Amino acid sequence: MSSILTWSTYVIVFGALGVLALRDRAKARQAVKVAIKSFLGILPIMLAFIGLIGLLLGVVPTEVISRYLGQGAGWWATLTAFVLGAVLYIASLVSIPLAASLLRAGASVTTIAAFLTGLMMVNTVTLPLEIKYLGKKMALSRNLLSLVFAFAIAIMIGMVLQ
Fold this sequence. Notes:
Structural class: mainly alpha
Number of strands: 0
Distance between the termini: 22 Å
Order of helices and strands: HHHHHHHH
Shape: globular
Radius of gyration: 20 Å
Low-confidence stretches: none
């Protein structure tokens, strides 16, 4: 399934680039330059995180991960993963492989869902920026509602997929 999705994405992206190249070669060349620059900018961080994940999973035995993040760890593991997700600022490009690795190592579905929903929906790191541009009431309301809904979604995902 992911292979079909991956190839479909390639076809769409390169098809759009081909159409753009036919219409305006200069814009197509500029788009490729921007894409390459963005890719090279994120590559060192991505490689560092993937290396860190590999190192962490190589050093920490799966029994330890299962004990602290697994089914038997209880609500504290889920709540801890949720809080970590809410306060960390990790790109989804890194967090999803991390979550998959932890899941394979024995972490519970609910705990991983709590980590990912907290990470994607709650932005405590960018809260000052949100307050500046959206206002204090809007930014705090959005984050508070995101906290509630993200945790509820994580619990529901855990109930459905367990």
